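Researcher: Let's try something more involved. This one mixes different molecule types, so please make sure each is placed in the same coordinate frame as the others.
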Amino acid sequence: MADPRELMTRYCDGDASAFRELYAAVAPRLYGYLVKMARSKSVADDLLQQTFLKVHRARAAYVRGADPLPWIYAIAHRTFLDDVRAGKRAKVGVADDDLPDVAAVPDDPGPDPELLAAALDALSELPEQQREAVVLTKLEGKSVAEAAAIAGTTVGAMKVRAHRGYEALRKKLEGRA
Amino acid sequence: MSDELKLPPFTPPPMGAELEAELGRLVPVETRRPMRQLAIVCISSMVYAAALLAILSVRADAGELPMGWMVGGGLAWFLGFVVPSYLALVPEKGTMIVRRRTAAVAAVASAIAFIAMGMLIHPSGPSSIQLGAERFLHGHWCLELGLATSIVPVVLGAIYLRGAVPTGARWIAACLGAGGGSLGGLLLHFHCPITDPLHTGVMHAGSVTVAALLAAALVPGRTEPR
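Model: All components are placed in one shared frame. Result:
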């Protein structure tokens, strides 16, 4: 993956191909984050488009040399929260046709679909802040500091949310085993 | 459970028509330069405050008050303007998300510190004016002047932060407002001869709190990405 800093700089200088490269590099991870948060592929589709539209319209806010990923994640986070607050997002139950497309990985058959559904279902039952903390720190691989910056909270609060969320998720999955 | 949590990668949808259309009209933009913008905010705001002071005149009792208090108080108000403005406008090196937590602490701390300073430290001279509690409200002009002074740094800061603050925008705005209110306090420090503690604590230092609250209510709409 090309350096997001370089792509963002070229994009701000008017190079549309750099934005396409940035989208190709960032969208899969961001889409995964939004699917896990929204629990609906169609909602995540919409949130992803909104997020990148906001990135595009606010590109002048970029600071050259800075890593744009936490900012882009924070925009996605805020877009998701605004969507929830607007009451647009319906609570979607776990259904096979609502599970996200899984990128084809020939050598890796992927997880058991039932297990995946159970994990996503258990994740969707967590309180919003704990779900976000688990998704960012455990699934997206962000550091606690990065996750805190994205969510607009403190490192301490993010640690607590991630720990409580992880424990709650573990108990839910053990209960289903 | 960690294995269960290792979910597979997701295939995102292609860029939508609206995004493609906007990309088709892509033009180069001037990106944010935080230190340069901080300098512009500080210099423009100080020039504005100095012009207001020139129009309104320096306090009549300035020569009668302890020099240490005049200079020290002025320095405290100046730092109360510059430090929150820096925290609101300049992210840490290598990042572009502004420091929400530090900004929040700065906004609250400066509001409390200046009220305490106004209440506790208020030397007066023969030409100073005492309003007293019964005529306390007659001094509302100072609060209004402090808020009017805060307009330039808050508006400039909001313009420079446009689209830059996806989360914690209210705290960043409050910090910007507290900085602007402190500039108002600096102007009042050199202009207003009223020295009773209620006036300096509420009408002068109150401009920090009120400007922070007003900015927190009004500015986030400009600084959040839309």
